[in-house]
Specification:
Length: 88
């Protein structure tokens, strides 16, 4: 792994988290539906970044990667449903 890769991944995670916080606090003016979708996409990309860079899922068997993908799906689903319930 390149020396810059963990620093770039960490920087992306920080920026994405700050963007999620701005979206959740209505700092950016989007409708509730678009806010939920944007936060879900950001959360999914953060999980994928951590899985690919820090956990080394690229070198694992397909079954382990499948479990990670299923976990990603349910994590994003939980975030979207939680944020959706806050909007009502």
């Amino acid at each position: 792994m390149n020396k810059i890769t963990p620093i770039a991944a960490w920087s992306y995670l920080v920026i994405a988290t700050l963007l999620e916080a701005a979206l959740a606090n209505k700092g950016l003016s989007l409708s509730t539906t678009y806010t939920n979708i944007a936060i879900g996409v950001l959360a999914a990309s953060q999980v994928a970044t951590v899985g690919a860079i820090y956990l080394g899922l690229k070198y694992e068997p397909r079954a382990v990667v499948g479990i990670a993908v299923a976990s990603l799906f349910f994590a994003v689903l939980a975030v979207v449903l939680a944020l959706g319930s806050l909007g009502h």
